[in-house]
Protein 1
Amino acid sequence: MSLHADVSATFSADGAESFHVDAEIEVEHGESLVILGPSGSGKTLLLETVAGFHPHDGPVTLDGRRVSDTPPEERDFGFVFQDYALFPHMTVRENVDFGSRYHGDTRDPDDLLAELGVAGLTDRYPPTLSGGEKQRVALARALAVRPAVMLLDEPLAALDVPTRQSLRDDLADVLADATAVYVTHNRTTARALADRIVIMNEGNVVQSGTPEEIFYRPESPMVARFTGSNVIDLDDAPSLRAAFDVESDDVVTIRPESVAFGDDGDVRGTVERVVREDATNRVTVAVDRVTIETFTEQTPAVGDEVWLTLPESDIHVCRQAAAV
Amino acid sequence: MATSAETRFSLSGVKRNSLVVVFVAVQALVFAGTYTVGRPTWYAFFMIASTAVTAFALDGDRFTVALATMGSVLMVALALPLFLFVSRQVPSLVIEQALDPGVHRVLYLGVYGPLLAALASLVFGVPLAHLLSKGFPGQPLVESLVDLPLVVPHSVAGIIILFGFGKGGAFPSISVLGSMIGMVLAMAFVSAPYAVNAAREAFESIDDRLEYASRIHGASRWETFRRITGPLAVRGMVTGGVLAWARAVSEFGAVAVVAYSVSFFYPFEGGEVTAQHAPVFVYNTYLQGGLEQSGAVAFLLLSVSGIIFLIVRYLTTDTTTTGGVV
């Protein structure tokens, strides 16, 4: 099943300015689309709008069949919520089996729970489960109805790091052949799970493309910063300007992992910060009036003078005019 | 060294229960002693002092002791009259009233009428509560109307009902004055806010995402209410019903104005009988028979209400709604 949605909706709450979501997404059959964006960018509201939880304008179609005029229960979606949304008064098995009453062809709850590694929980109630267990049960509940499209709203966000990594691996298996829309603010998760990525900001789609395009060819400084690239305004880095043939109002972006760190290179800078991240160090180096991040297994000291190499093939130029 | 909070919370359940039993037993013994020697005032001071000492022993913090001491003054005001009321009953008079068929009718009506009012409040109040929990244009107006009976003197409420539904009002074919319908209407008028507000709070406490999860996995709005929202809010609904029932049981003003005495079907005699709502009957007995006689009837009404209240509380504990886990 392919999904196409071009929706707009306005949300208002007491004491807050109204928020407008106006976005178009398209997911091909068997594809995992990740909606990536900062908190408050409207990605969850977009997902909920596509699901039919909020009134909206614009079409939502499944394989060309318009479902935007139908209630959520007739849209043929499965939904996994960030905070699980398991029914607390039902056992795990009853939760997973919830949709069987409304769908002709559902999967066996026990098989699903076993597949997801939580077979022993069938008679437990959700409040007695850990976060990881709850999310596996929520995933089973969504998969049980054999939905045409899976909608997942930051399902890993509330979990601790080991549980998140474990469940992310399982999700990668589950979503391998599924048509899915996955909302997250975590770029690592996005890269791990996405066939394509949509970047949202302030209720709008600001870029869409493959993970390669999004991470290595961001169309604006906002996308570059959010996806973790270095954003370098060459006006503030005269020692770098000489190396690149770009116009004065352009900025360049480069992935931290593309920047080589060593005793020799294109440009010299001063180590400003060193942060240990698992097996590597994330090092921030000041060059003129900008900072550049890179990863290295070396452990430099703050204040050390170091050389950085920025391969020209990995440098991407984006226009300031596209800044958001 | 353990902090005061750690000390307070380090008491195990068994120790805490034992402490409560000892405290209550001591209170009962001292009350019995002071009552026997005709000095119940001494008990009032003992209750305040013993609460302060217990708070100090448990917590040791002056702030907590001050809170407990101030609170115990209110507890004296609430509990001491109740203790004295129970203690000063004349058993023979209570038994005499308990065997009086007229009192049986009053007690039956005192439970049955409020039950009808509470049911009516729930049947029409729960849908309204659900709407209020979701919000709609003009909601503050509706909320004000729902809460209005809480601030209207109840004799005034009775007059309003007579203007609205009595002679010359809406539904002229329905007799309200002195009828069962009028009595239930008067009770529902003053008790419905309790049912609506308790149910609304219960609905508001349910995460919208539970309803979303139900809908997206196939359930219609009706089914979602039946399988998710309703069961999760049932405790709030029952609480609202019990509050409405209790409020209706104690209603005097509106009922005295609208339905001073009513005819109703009394199953134990297999036909129509006439009786007064219990608070009205107690008041009449007080005027005609004095404090002791009205006290005996009041004691019976209090006992019946207390028993029903405890049964409902027992039936609506956690285990009946969520498998005992939430």
Protein 2
Amino acid sequence: MPSMIAMERDHALAKPAYRILAEKLGEKILRGTDYRGDLAITVDRSAWKEAARTLRDHPELDYKLFLDLCGVDYLNDESRPDRFEVALHLYSVTHKHHIRLKTALPEKRPVCDTLVDVYKGANWFEREAFDLYGIVFTGHPNLTRILTHEDFVGHPMRKDFATGKRFVNKKAKEWLLTVPKGSEHLVLNIGPSHPAMHGCFRVQALLDGETIKDAEAEIGYLHRNFEKMAEERTYWQIIPYTDRLNYCSAFINGHGWALAVEKLLGVAAPPRAEAIRVILSEFSRIMDHLVCISTNVVDLGAITPFFVVFRAREEIYDLLDSVCGARLTVSYVRIGGVAQDVPDDFDARCRKTMGWIREVAEQLENLLTRNIIFARRFKDVGTFSKEDALSYGWVGPCLRGSGIGYDIRKDHPYSGYDLYDFDVPVGSVGDCYDRYLVRVEEIKQSLRIIDQALSKLPQGPFITDDRKVALPPKSEVYSDIESLMNHFKLVYDGILAAPGEVYGYVEGANGELGYYIVSDGKKHPARVKVRPPCYNIYQAYPQMIKGTMLADAVAMIGGLNVIAGELDR
Amino acid sequence: MGLLDIITGKYVDPTHFKSVHESGNIITTTVDAVVNWGRKSSIWPFPFGTACCAIEFMAFTGSHYDVARFGSEVLRFSPRQADLLLVAGTIVDKMGPILKTIYDQMPEPKWVVSMGVCASTGGFYRSYHTMQGIDEIIPVDVYVPGCPPTPESLLAALMKIQERIKSGDQAKRPQGEHRVGARAEGVNDRRERREAWAHDDASRASTGLDPRGRIHFKLTEERDESGNGSHHA
């Protein structure tokens, strides 16, 4: 449809980002599109760094928040002269706008400039693109494997790499840091199996007494290849995989995935489904914050809050169990709605659970907020400035703790968040205590949202009646030939999205959870990139702990709420 | 529960002193039986939690399910102090050497629970970096199905471990040793899988074997009245 493409281009041309880049780069801008409201600009690889710098520094653009950088392999796309592409996602907090910057790289020599000196957060993302796609970033300070192990051969996300091919890792990487010769500093290895490391992160610290002189982190200990698996699954089949990204708040991941695919398809879920999604998302957010706070203080030696909090968690589990039959990994969302309607006593169950949460939150605050030991361990520890937070790409409670009130639910309302009245708490100092307070306040705000959503829960269908997206009800499948055919086609062919690419995002429990989906018109997505909030947050962790005491490093990691499933995917 | 009094042939519980007195104040048994009897109710687990299962493991130790009822609430984060390795979550190839080291560091006797399908078989992550079951590198005593298993099934696994301790059973060798680093099967699309099957059939045919899954029906021989096979006639 040439007219459609022309229209997209016209939309893109009207955007200030395109205009300013065009003035600056001229011929080097190759393409601008505005597919489904996503502004995407392709530049020549020689102008890659300059384009990124312009987007960051120009006062009219101000794309200071680094979101994501990833590689894409277009091996099967005949129309493209170059096999690889690098896609960069940025956000402007002042102008409330997302942008995608792309550049194509040839198969023979996939080389482009590094962005590490423009955005600090680009470091690990470029290492990941190198690891998974073999894209080389010139000028990168440490371009080594990050997710796969040392004995791995090849670049697994390339389309010609067999999914099941494995290599045995014979020996764990022992040294991440080098000790200067003649120094008496001690290298301390923390993790990947360490109680303070919540799963499988690893940090190596160079200690002078109890002070950390230098630190280096290693990840990939839970790299279980969500993105590669997603390329072999239909849009539905990916839903259970998303549950296992941030498993502390599994429902939000599915919600984000459904919204991203709905954006790609151009369909909308009915209001009742959206309200149910909001309610369960907020319960999941509460669950996530509760686990974050309680395990954080367990690391500091206080086990009572853990037992108190798990009482409320069990109540939320029971609620999810009654809705969909699963406690943790719910798989309740569907493209275009939810799997089934909520039970009749949903309202009563929610209100009972909310009562529990209120009680537990109050107990938690009594135990912690004014507790002098807790305050001394948390106040002025792990302070992180606004500028660094943006450059590393922090989002969610951690960014808000640092004093920037960016909340997707407010700034880009989805699923009807604009219908509800709630506040966004913002910290003032940016230390561990602020992040804790933001989380506690968000629990209360989430309860407010749930309360409003429950009282105006609309009646109606729980899933869209678009038969290219959602299965017809079973009663119709058995009685109506057309529904039977729809059912058959949809199960056999899956959802077929038109070729195109979107970036869908939601406010996850610990930040902006984004899905960058590239569709080539087939039943499996050509590329799915998760924009994991933890990845950026954990990347800053070694920088944060430099110069602090070892015990403070333990206090910091819990409050950042890094979830391994999402970090390593 | 209890110790075998070999004179009366009955189990007696040494905590019921009265019954011990009545049967002669003496119990004859083996040291192993007494030690195992004591050991099974004081298991110290090492939680090797990596992923989603670790969250359900936390529920298992939390106030609602309360693992303290089974004497296993003393979680040890040092392998030197633990006798049960509880692997909760996906183990990827990068984590393999670390898991193996931790298993080796645990003192004998030791038991292993593989919690969830990822630890048991790789689960639905049939891909380039996921270990297809921890029994490739360490022996496993009890496998718990589920993704993630409910705390109830984990409690059941703990009780199974108690039974094994009581009877002196312990897995000694990694059951899946032979497939370390093997290609994760089941990932391909149907066409590729069929090609793989055809390849397998051909290689079996070349050694004179039938394709996998072919069942030979054995015909019962006709018998005459004397009971001998018909071919004798």
Protein 3
Amino acid sequence: MEKITQRELLPGVRLCCVQTDRLRTGTFSVSFLRRLQQEDAAKNALVLNVLARGCRAWPDMRRLKAACQEACGAVVEPEYRQYGEILAAGFGAAFPDDPWLPAGSRNLERVIRLVSDLCLDPDTRGGLLRNDYVLSERQNLRDRILTAVNDKPTYARIRARALMCADEDYGVYPLGSPEEAEKITHLILTRHYQQMLAVSPVRLFYCGALPFEQVRDTVLDSFLTLPGGEERRMPETEIRDSAAVLRSETEYMDVEQGTLVLGCRLGGYVAPQEQPVLEVFNRYYGASHTSRLFRTVREQKSLCYSISSGCDRHKAVFTVTAGIAFDKRYEVMEAVLEELDRCRAGELIPEDLEAARVSAAAAYRMTGDKGGALDSFYLGQELLGSSARPEELAALALEVSPEDVIRMAQRVQPELDYFLRGPEKEAEA
Amino acid sequence: MIPREFAEYGLTRYAGVTESGLAVYVFPRPGLQTKHALLAVKFGGCDLRFTIRGKWKDAPAGAAHYMEHKMFEMPGYHAAMKLSAAGARANGFTSSDKTGYHFSCTEGFMEDLEELITFVSTPYFTEESVAKEQGIIAQEIRMREDQPGRRVRTELMKALYARHPVREGNLGTEESIARITPDLLYGCHESFYRPDNMVLCCAGNVDPESILSLAARLLPEKPRRKPPERDRGEEADLAPVRVRTETEMPVSMPVFLLGSKLPFVPEGKDWQRRLLLAELSCDLFLGEGSPLYAALYDGGAINRSFSAGVTDFPGGGVCCAGGRCRDPQEVLGRIVDAAETFRADRETVERFRRLQKAARGNFIMALDSFFDLCHTQADGHFMGFDGMESPMIRSGLEPEEAEAFIRETFRADRLALSVVRPTESGKG
């Protein structure tokens, strides 16, 4: 059985420790919680990539990689995770846990030291982040932002979100825009970095065999130079009601397959106790093999290969995405809305609802078998104001009633019907 | 079931074979909630010419993948839906050498396993259902055609190989799948979906003996016919058919993949050693910790999308490197130049030893992924080697072998370059 301990180590700095001897892989991460906003997004992304180029102890990628290899193949990477309009920006590490290595390996200590060096002790010139690293990573970031277009379904979701939430921070692309990236100098980035360290709430996570006290002591020792004195204020996500009407947008690209995205809002905050209800509804409606959308749109009508629904409980936004032929847009959209109406009207299929319950419960339970999944889970719970564990949510999922699901379906308000498709002429041919 | 303990990893593997010839491997992992099963069939995208009842047959490209889709359909129900209804996460995949059916669950493992073995061993193909699937798979094919990473790989294989079926891709084309009929699928099922051509791998808090008993009960019959023969068009020539291939897509900057064919080595331990050497050599030469990677990255020729590795398939394998960059030809040129002068000097030897240490750590971490664990076991079973022995074999490799491999593999006359260039509409 795992032991979970969560403590505030310093003002605004919390450590969540999951002690378990069941896994071979240890997980450690540090996240600086930032509000997602246009003026900061590119800076947040860029600063991590610059830090990942090297620190004083390992000033370039070769030596940094050598340090990871010495830590028995530890994988240490910049991480950006989004929870509504909150961005958890930092570094995540996966490494072979100490019990599976020769005695005295102290691998966790190595990894924590490596991550803290990357975060807190960069290789600077005159107190500023290295200009050559900033220029090189700025170009890479610009290229990476533009690369979003390469993955069409993801690009369609990004565009749908930007259009639906045009005047909200949620519509901002987490990596920022090429124009914003272009403006960043090493001076601007150093200031941003210092501000990030000083005022962002910090979340540390560990999952592995070692006890809380040992992890806490190592963390405190390694993160001692984290600046103090200023208040670390928790960012928040703004939740909006739905627009009154469903609007339609179409964009064109030279693609073989169209991507349809239906963007919806849940009309207000998702309370912690409603999480299992949303999870069960999502699986019943569109996120499983027994979902209404899979059964009808794919299996009965053969209209697509992929169709699924998803939700961001932090922003109370719900989406459906489908890869379809260009001429099937209205047929698919009609089927998607028809199935939603059936849920709202209470026309539920008991066996499929039970399938959604057990599938949601199993998914919660499986979370406990992966360090990375537990990291995201516990951070997500904290941001929702919940202290529930995966097994508790699994038990609650099994108790979700048809009335709960109907109420959740009635909250889903379609707001944007977005279609990314090929040129008009090709579709008509 | 015969246990074999891997003490340094705290893992025991149980192995057994049913009377009918089905190989069963089980990795018990008490304490974890997830339980996983993979039933794999040695029939993949590269099996396009084979015998059915002793007669040679040419199958349309995409036949194994089409079969994978249709196997879930049972008389009166859909197996994936049934497993999903029980809380399991079920899926299938088709690679160049095999088709896999798998599920993960937390409860009801034995019932789910019974369903898995039952549906994989029950062929049920009607004219209507086979025709219906064409629309779905056509959408899957179009989805893949929009993925530059897929496109660049497909074109690279066509540039490297003149006849090998890896040229065709596992999904086939809309034209080729239109030729698939229920008769063909029944023939493929009879030839390949037989216990002695399949392997069952399970991991989690499960009981090995119960699994073997269940498999023996559900698949009791020993196949009467000989296993099918296959023609996978092995090629001896290591030179590519074309040195460069280019296509256009809506991408923001060029996407590229370069590759070099591995010499053919028959399945078995020699092939395993060859693959491990190829992987380690790629990492040594082109991995993040290499001088070449640093020089290319620092000069802006590549970015973090760049990676190198080995892809293997029946009768062959390719060392690949690629990503997104402005000038793929320049990257290729730098790689060829660096390979010519590559030496196992002291720094390289130190790095080689570090990579061996890191690879052992990565192997330990991979034991937490039941999908990877079962997949590796199935791969080894079909290819005649034991994946659990990989760390030991890897630790026996020497830097001088890597030097020879790199100098030989990344020669200009061995490499082909595949590039997807941006169309006007894709430029940012």
Protein 4
Amino acid sequence: MATALAPGLTTAPPLYGLVLAGGRSTRMGRDKATLAYGDGTPQLERAMALLQRHVTHAYVSVRAEQSAEPVRARFAQIRDTHENIGPIAGLLAAQARHREAAWLVLACDLPLLDEATLTRLLRARDPARTATAYRSSHDGLPEPLCAIYEPRAREPLCAYVTAGKQCPRKFLLSVDTLLLDEPNPRALDNINTPGEYGPANQTVIGEHAIQPRNLTVQYYALLREQAGRREEALQSSARTARDLYAELAARYPFSLTPEVLRVAINAEFADWSTPLKDGDTVVFIPPVAGG
Amino acid sequence: MAAFHFTRKPIDTQALRMGLADPACGGYATFEGWVRDHNEGERVRGLEYEAFEALAVREGERILGEASARFGIAHAACAHRLGELAVGELAVWVAVSAAHRHEAFLACRYIIDEVKHRLPIWKKEHYVSGDSGWVNCERCAAPAAHTEALSPPGRHAHKHGS
């Protein structure tokens, strides 16, 4: 997808990645970066693996006293230069280290973050804006900890902190942030307490249990034109047609949202939440106009 | 010939009519949808129909079955064109035969309304201006909430076309 550039910019600024692992995990009572999900992978490691697929340089943001912790010590680190200002400290330190870079910032405590959510953010990125972020499916406010901050965000962010403010959501509201709808409304649920950890871990285990399935997708009318094909065979670990559409919408410039589509599985109308099986043929049905 | 079918050739209504002949029927009603030369302020030069045939044929047969069950008619049939059509051409044909005219009219109306709402068929309009667009899809595409997006799934047909 072509991205608009600010006047004077001929290419988008390089994108670096930052996973924030400098928190104190007070409510969890255990270090969230090392908390294991699914097959036992610490969530910092999982977040770094997701990030590294998309950026040339990926760093972990840490406080100085955390730098020797074994999971954090596996990765390139950027140490906080400010204390007690929350997650903004990590971004400020990263921006100071590489002023020329845009930063894809991820919290380390997003165990349900998926590839489709990250891909959509990257595709929609507009370097002419100060930031690109999701609108929370819970309260409609910007999600600052799965977002892209352009180099032009550095000065207003410094001014914001100098003025004694530290809420990253309000910062995004104060600048010309490009806000997107989340393809998966649970992807950015952050998990802060032992009570939230159990159910989230069960969800991650469920996702791991799904082997990629062989699916056929057929496209008609507007979707056929936007996908540039009539049919494709693919492997996907999407659990439902809804997940599959989110995955495909991250790949193709689909203009239709699931709300206006119907779905058919094996040539019968189906529910969006029907589990997909190996060998299924899926068709997304744009608004019809027979007769 | 199945009661519901698609064709890429002109619909032969005379031949199809014979399939509904029945000595027990005193009423025969048909509806023909033609390609119109304008739609929503645009001058239309022609149309292109595309269908998800496997599902549309099943759903079309279900609609004809529903019409029989609801209105007690003797026979019902529907044919729909696919591919490129010029202004004036016959795009969709519905026919019903029944003992009396009342149920024939009602069933004919029911069938065309359901066909337009439920069948996975799409229509691309080619305008005299050189532009083109998928009917009911282009305006759904805007990210902003549109009243259309609030309709229940599969109820996107508007008051245009045939």
